[in-house]
Amino acid sequence: MALYIEGSADDGTIWVEQPVNITRARTVTVDVYSEQQSFNRLSEVAFFAGKKPQDGLSESDFNRENDIEDHAGWKTYSYPVDDLTGSVTLAVGMSVVWETGVRRLFDNVRLVEADSSH
Predict the structure, then answer these.
(1) Which end of the chain is more exposed for a tag (fewer CB within 10 A), N or C?
(2) Is 16 in contact with 107 (CB distance < 8 Å)?
(3) Which branch of life, at top level (predicted)?
(4) 46: closest CA among 2, 9, 95?
(5) 117: pLDDT confidence band, cut at 50, 70 and 90?
(6) How does 26-65 read in b/e, with b if 16+ C-beta sit within 10 Å?
(7) What is the CA radius of gyration of the chain?
C-alpha cells in the first residue's frame, strides 16, 4: 500500500485498520520501503493492536517508536502482541514529524504465530 501524508503542519498520522483474531499470534510484522536513508526523522511507522477506543483511534493510540528513514530500501518492523487474545483492531500506517509531504510503501503485514515446536 502506498501512503502519502502532507506534513506541512509538522504533524499527522494516517493508517488502515481491520479486526483480526490475534489469539495465536506472537508478533505482527510489516515491511516498509524508504527511498533513501536520512539522519533526519521525517516519518515513523504507526502501529496499533488492541481494543479500539470507543471514539475511534487517534494519533496518540499508536506505537510510533520506529523511524522509517533509518534505512534505504525495504525493512521489516516487528511488534509483540503475545499479551493479546481474541478479536482486536490491527492498524498500520505512518506519522509525519517533519514539515514536508511524505510518501512511503507498506507491504506484507503478517501475524506471526509462536513456534509450536518449543
Answers:
(1) C
(2) no
(3) Archaea
(4) 95
(5) very low
(6) eebebebbbeeebeeebbbbbbbbeeeeeeebeeebbebe
(7) 15
Q: CATH topology for 2-113? A: Jelly Rolls (2.60.120)
Calpha distance 51→70 (Å, rounded) = 30
User: Could you report the per-residue pLDDT of 61-97, keeping only the tens digit for each?
Assistant: 999 999 999 999 999 999 999 999 999 999 999 998 8
Beta strands 13-21 and 2-6 are unpaired
Q: Quick one: pLDDT band at residue 116, thresholds 50, 70, 90?
A: very low
| Farthest-apart Cα atoms in the chain, separation | 50
pLDDT band at 41 (very low <50, low <70, confident <90, very high): confident
Q: Where are the domains of the chain?
A: 2-113
C-alpha cell at 72: 534505504
AA identity, residue 100: T
Number of residues that make up the chain: 118
Residue pair 75/32 in contact (Cβ under 8 Å)? The answer is yes
Strands laid side by side in the 43-50 sheet? 13-21, 87-96, 43-50
